[in-house]
């Protein structure tokens, strides 16, 4: 069975999440090791009960990805998980990334899309999260973007990116389109961590999509500002190029650990959007139609 294409277009989709990720060796913080199976089963069951049946899991190789964990979680909770392939950003690359060519790196991604991840039946269906450093794209990161473009051109799978604190999104887009990727197959991630109205409009003008995917992380950027920007985008008729998510990465983000939990987006943030005057049709675009069309690509 092809577990990479089970996305139901009638259901809500979180576009940028993590379920098993381990950045603790890099950050020297065990909170950055998210592997809480029982707690995640509970949270995924709650999401399913609220109409969120799809989740794009953007943990790629060397970020602590665990395909069997995802398979088990799908089986027990009923959530559908779309897995990813690729490399994150310079700080987290293993040594071989610098040594291999873009073509070699692309082949690794293609193999995980076409053959499966780590010998399991789970195949990657997203090239993500392909990242750049804060305020710059290093030469090795540029090579990974090239590899992602090659993998996309070979498989048709969409590309989802990581911007560090909402920097370099337009530059990422120029790189990928320069390598032959059509803008409508690219979503620029983490566009909701700083004020950048003109940049957002320039990205959207190309036909690419953007993600407001750190919802609930008010210590980085307040949700009130996210709401205001989403309202302004909706008023310009641009909700059709926006996706929503939370980018949960830590144990302390889970509801059982007194964090916001995955349901925060549905239970708290969506009511904020409605209260601000954003129509339900725009919410359905951002949470259902846009991701379900994009990630089926």
From TrEMBL:
Span of the signal peptide: none
Keyword Iron-sulfur: no
Superkingdom as given in the UniProt entry: Bacteria
UniProt cross-references to PROSITE patterns, sorted A to Z: PHOSPHOTRIESTERASE_2 (PS51347)
Cross-referenced SUPFAM superfamilies: Metallo-dependent hydrolases (SSF51556)
Hydrolase as UniProt keyword: yes
Pfam families, alphabetized: PTE
Keyword annotations of the record: Hydrolase, Metal-binding
PANTHER family the record matches: PHOSPHOTRIESTERASE-RELATED, PHOSPHOTRIESTERASE-RELATED PROTEIN
Sequence similarity: Belongs to the metallo-dependent hydrolases superfamily. Phosphotriesterase family.
Protein name per the record: Phosphotriesterase-related protein
Originating species: Serratia quinivorans
């Amino acid at each position: 069975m092809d577990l990479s294409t089970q996305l139901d277009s009638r259901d809500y989709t979180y576009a940028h999440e993590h379920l098993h990720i381990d950045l603790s060796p890099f950050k020297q913080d065990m909170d950055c090791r998210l592997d809480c199976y029982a707690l995640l089963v509970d949270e995924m069951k709650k999401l399913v009960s609220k109409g969120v049946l799809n989740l794009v899991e953007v943990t790629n190789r060397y970020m602590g990805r665990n395909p069997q964990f995802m398979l088990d979680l799908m089986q027990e909770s009923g959530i559908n998980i779309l897995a990813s392939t690729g490399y994150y950003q310079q700080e987290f690359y293993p040594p071989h990334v610098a040594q291999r060519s873009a073509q070699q790196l692309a082949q690794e991604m293609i193999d995980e899309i076409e053959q499966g991840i780590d010998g399991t039946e789970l195949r990657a269906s997203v090239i993500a999260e392909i990242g750049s450093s804060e305020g710059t794209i290093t030469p090795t990161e540029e090579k990974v973007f090239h590899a992602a473009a090659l993998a996309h051109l070979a498989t048709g799978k969409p590309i989802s990116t990581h911007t560090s604190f909402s920097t370099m999104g337009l530059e990422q887009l120029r790189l990928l389109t320069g390598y032959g990727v059509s803008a409508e197959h690219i979503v620029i991630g983490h566009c909701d961590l700083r004020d950048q109205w003109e940049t957002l409009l320039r990205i959207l003008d190309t036909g690419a999509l953007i993600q407001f995917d750190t919802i609930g992380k008010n210590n980085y950027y307040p949700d009130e500002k996210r709401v205001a920007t989403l309202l302004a985008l909706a008023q310009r008729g641009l909700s059709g190029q926006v996706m929503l998510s939370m980018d949960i990465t830590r144990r302390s983000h889970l509801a059982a650990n007194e964090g916001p939990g995955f349901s925060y987006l549905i239970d708290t943030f969506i009511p904020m959007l409605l209260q601000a005057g954003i129509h339900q049709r725009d919410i359905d675009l951002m949470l259902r139609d846009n991701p379900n069309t994009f990630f089926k690509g």
